[in-house]
Amino acid sequence: MTSQAFYPIGTPGQPWGPAEIAEWRSRQVRHRSYEAEVVSKIDKLRSRFDVVEYGVLDYAPDRYPLFAIKSRDWRDDLPTFLVTGGVHGYETSGVHGVLQFLERHAADYAGKANLLVAPCVSPWAYERIHRWNIDAIDPNRSFRDNSPAQESAALIALVAPWRERVLMHIDLHETTDTDESEFRPALAARDGKPNEPGEIPDGFYLVGDSEDPQPEFQQAVIAAVAMITHIAPADAKGEIIGATVVAPGVINYPVRSLGLCAGITNARYRTTTEVYPDSPRATPEQCNAAQAAAVCAAIDFALARA
């Protein structure tokens, strides 16, 4: 089923040009503060971790420094784990779940693992509660050479020295009701294509890599999260967001060919979390806790097999 649902920018069937992107940008409103809600929490971690500024988004008149947190006791003989959040700025628990992990759990891995953590990859979008960056580009389709998204390019450069050494990468996301009400219609309008309505799953799920799915790893993460919040069931077609459910709460995508963040290293274990914050069965606190639990379970599984 397709629909030419009205979107207030552009002409149906015609991709956006610079004028439409400029109009879209003019409509974006700051709703929250990256400095107050994210950077202030990162600053509190400086006594325990090394904080690295790995880039700056110069989106005049705004300027957004990009921060990563590294283990202070980094050792070349220890396995390295990459945790990323806020690739899509509107996915709140992706950011605050990372911060909760750092505040409450990361110290447990001191002397056991090297942690490299980027809590908020897309701060401009975080403030505007949006999926895209300032140029109407989705960073999570842009993790490739010569990326058109500054956010993606900066993270690729940060990770490059450890690309071959990362053992596990977990990227924290959400699936929200606004995916259907705003972001998919906007995507269809931007690309001049018909909108294809989908179904939002109620619950937590994971997106593994179809080229290297690591099913035991995925199920270990699902089992840990199931103790905190509910796992999304398959729909009537046996799918979640159009992909076949291969195990409870798990689907697979070809992450590299899609330019997804989960494909930026050669990690043996990689996954993308998806929390559903709009569920009547989940609170914001549960969503953050589920993300943090997923990170711990992913590290624990990989560490036990390092």
UniProtKB/TrEMBL annotation:
InterPro entries for this protein: AstE_AspA_cat, Peptidase_M14
Chain intervals for the UniProt region annotation (Disordered): 179-207
Highest taxon of the lineage: Bacteria
Cofactor: Zn(2+)
Record's keyword annotation contains Zinc: yes
Protein keywords: Hydrolase, Metal-binding, Zinc
Pfam families: AstE_AspA_cat
Peptidase M14 domain residues: 30-306
Similarity annotation: Belongs to the peptidase M14 family.
Protein's recorded name: M14 family metallocarboxypeptidase
Species in which this protein is naturally found: Lysobacter gummosus
